[in-house]
Amino acid sequence: MAIPAVTIATLVTGNFYVALGCMAAKYMLSECWMSPAITMMQSTVPPEDQGSIVSAHLFYLTVAGCAATVSLGALANALGAVANPRIYGYLIWIWSMVGYIGSVPFFWKGGKEYKKYIEK
Question: pTM of the full predicted structure?
């Protein structure tokens, strides 16, 4: 559901307020997975391991976010984004699509496995 919002926010460069509004919509639509993911982890691991699993989850999210930022920055520099700032929008859009579309099978599989676990 956030794909149209991130597309407009990153590829339509004529209106700052439209882009900002679409980024707000993007965050409201695409960042709501965190609480259910943590709930699933907490309900599937023993109580003594819940802190460790949530901490590991947040650690790997942080590492992935930092690695993505460094990689995207290096790619932007290599493509000459400083001289042509539109490149940033295209790169952010592509990066977002890889994340959104790439996560679909994993969330689907995770949901199926969680449902089987709960129904036991």
Answer: 0.79
